Structures
1.
Amino acid sequence: MKAAKIFGPGDIKIVDVPIPVLGAHDVLCRVVRAGVCGTDYAIYTGELSFVKSGLVKYPLIPGHEWSGVVEKIGPEVDNFRPGDRVVGDTYVSCGHCNFCAIGNTSRCKKNRSVGTINAWDGAYAEYIMMPERHLFHLPDSVSFDNGALIEPAATALYAVTLAGVKIADTVLVLGSGPIGIIAAKMAKLSGAGKVIIAARKDFKLKAALALGADAAINTTRDNLAEKAREYSGEYGIDRIIEASGSTELFKEALQIIKPGGVISCVAFYDRPADGIDLDRFIINDVTIRAVAGSQGMYPLVLKLMDLGLADFSSLITERHLLENVLQIMHDMKQQSEMKIKIIIEGN
C-alpha cells in the first residue's frame, strides 16, 4: 500500500509499505479521511518538543485524526464487520496491564501513540490497522469529514470538561486553531453563559462566531485583558481554555482569570514559560489543568454529532490526496489567513 513516511526533519516521501498483518483482535481499515494536525507538521519540521526529547523517533507514518471503513477483521473480532464505518483512538494500549484490565487503557504505560510518540503507524496511508478495543462505530448520520474531526473535538471537549465549565460560566478561549474553535462550541454546549475567543486572525475568529462563540478578540488590534473585562463585566472570567501554545498568552491568562478560576491548557509549548507570577497564581487560588489527549470523550462527541448538535465540517478549508503530501506540508508552513483544517481524502 502507499503511505507517507517521515524519515527525518524536512524529509517526507510517499513509499510502498506492506499492508499490516492482522492479529486475532485486529481490524484493517481503509482510510477515507485523514486530518492534518499541527503536531504532524511539527514532527515533519523536527520542531516538536517530543522530537527534541527523543520521544518521537523517525521514521514514522503520521496521522492520528482519521475516519474510514473496515476492510478486514481478525478471527476473534466481535464488534466490527467489513463495511462498517469507523474512527479510532489516538493510541494503542498493551491490553494486558492492570490499567488495561480495568478499562483505563489511556493510562497504559506501554501505550503507543498513533503517528506520534512511540509511533503506531498512522493514517497517512491507504490502510490503518487498529485493535478492535480502540475502534468506534461512526454513525450513518455522521460524515467522514466530521469523523476525521472527532479527535480534535474529543480533545477540546476534554479541555472543557477539565476546566469544569458549568451553567452560566464566562469562558475565554485562547487560540483559534481547530481545537480552540471547537472548544468554544463545546463550552456553549456545556452550558456556558458567554464564550469569548481570542486570537490573531479574523477569518478564524469569524469561524468560531459562526459555530456559537459570543464574542471575539483580535489580539493584534485589541488589548486582551481590557477586552476580556469589557465582555465579562462584573462577573469576570470563570474558565480559560488555553489552546494557543503561546507562553505569553499563558502568562496573560494568569492575570485575567478571576480568583478561584480554572485555566485548562490544551496545547504544546515549544519553550519554557519564564517570568510566571507565582504569587498571583497562589493568592488568587487559580487551578491549572493539563490536558493530555481526550480520555474517554470519543463516545460523547459521537453522540453529539449523531444528535446533530456538533458539526465541524465548516472548519475544513483545504483538501488534498495523499500523493500531494509535500504540498500539504508547504501549505502548513504558509500559516495562511484562510486555513483552519486540511484534510487528506482517501479512496
2.
Amino acid sequence: MMRTILAASLVLAIAACGGAGGYGGTVAPPPPPPPPPTGTVDANTNDTFNPRQTTIRAGSTVTFVFKAVGHNVNFDTQNSGTPADIGGVNANVSVQRTFNVAGTYQYHCNIHPGMSGSVVVQ
C-alpha cells in the first residue's frame, strides 16, 4: 500500500511540472541590447545605423562603430563644417569624426541603399 501511495505521489509531482521547461512552459526572450552610448553610432549587420539620429554639442566627437558587415559613411551636404566622409568598406573597426559647427548632418551608406542617419549638432 505504501508503495502505491509513493508511486502515485511521484506521478503527480512529475505531471505538475509540465515537462516544458521553465514556469508555465514559456520562456521569455532576452531583452534587446541597450542603445549605444551618446556620441556613438553602430553600423549594424542588418544594414541600419543605430541610433538613426544622434544629438551632440558642437566640438564633440561621434564614433561610428562598424560591425562584421562592411559599411561607409558619406555626408549628403558638404560645407565648411562637414567632417570628412568615411569611405571604403569598413568592418570590425571604429572611426571618429568631430563636429565643430552647429547644424544637422545627414549621412548614408553608399553600399546599402536606404541605410541613413543624421547627427544633430547643437
3.
Amino acid sequence: MQKRARGNRAEELVAQYLAEQGMTVLDRNRTIRGGELDIVCTEKDTLVVVEVRSVDHIDDLHEYMTPQKMSHLFHTIEAYILAHNRQSLVRLDVVFVQQNSILEWYKNVTNT
C-alpha cells in the first residue's frame, strides 16, 4: 500500500507539472487490456503517454525501464489508440520522480 501511495503522489506531481508546461491531461491511471497508462495527455496535435517512475536511487535510471516493460507499454498504448480512435501522432515520455521532486523527463523515448 505504501508503494502505491508513493506512486500516486508521484503521478499527481507529474500531472500538475505537465499542465503547467501547457499540456492537457486527458486520462490518469487508465487500465486497458490488462495494462495501465499512468498519464495520457496532449501537447498540440500529439498524444503523449507518460510513464511515471518513482525511484529510490538515481544510479542508473535506465534500469527502471526494461525491454519487457517497454513492450508491454507499447501494446497498452496501441489498445488505447484503437479504443479511442485516435489519429494523432503518439509520443512516449518517461518521468522519474524521487522524494516529491522530478529528477528527469525523457521525451519521446521511442519513435512511435
